[in-house]
């Protein structure tokens, strides 16, 4: 009674595997970054915490900075592995508004030359002294 038309099913391509860093590469990257920070020739030293250590804000900020540094290294290496280009923008994507505004806009738009008073050498010496 009702005829069914045969439709061709769309062919879905198998997803190509996304290149990933191996465990050895991740370890080498993280070890290199941590060695620059707290290694034998690193910028910081590790000291065991004592009971009277109250500098928790500094430790939290430093932990955040280390995590951000490690994340950036992993992201950039993964992008290189995948052939992506990761670059910082070279300019602001918007034009910032001026911080201050001229109080007399009609005078600022004038193209007339500004005449400065001229003083003789004797008057300049007297003004300075």
Question: How would the blueprint of this fold be written?
Answer:
Layout: H1 23-38, H2 56-82, H3 105-108, H4 121-128
List keywords for this structure.
mainly alpha, 129 residues
Written overview of the protein:
- The chain is mainly alpha-helical and 129 residues long.
- It has a domain at 54-87.
- The protein is built from four helices and no strands.
- α1 (23-38) runs antiparallel to α2 (56-82).
- The longest helix is centred in the middle third of the chain and has 27 residues, at 56-82.
- The mean pLDDT is 79.
Brief overview, please?
The chain has 129 residues and is mainly alpha-helical. It has helices spanning 23-38, 56-82, 105-108, 121-128.
Quote the average pLDDT.
Answer: 79
Q: Report the strand count.
A: 0
The biggest beta sheet reads: none
Shape: flat
**How much helical structure, as a percent, in the residues?**
40-55%
Q: State which percent range the strand residues make up.
A: under 5%
One letter per element, helices H and strands E, the order comes to HHHH
The DSSP helix count reads 4
Are there runs of 5+ residues with pLDDT below 50, and where?
Answer: none
Cα-to-Cα separation, first versus last residue: 113 Å
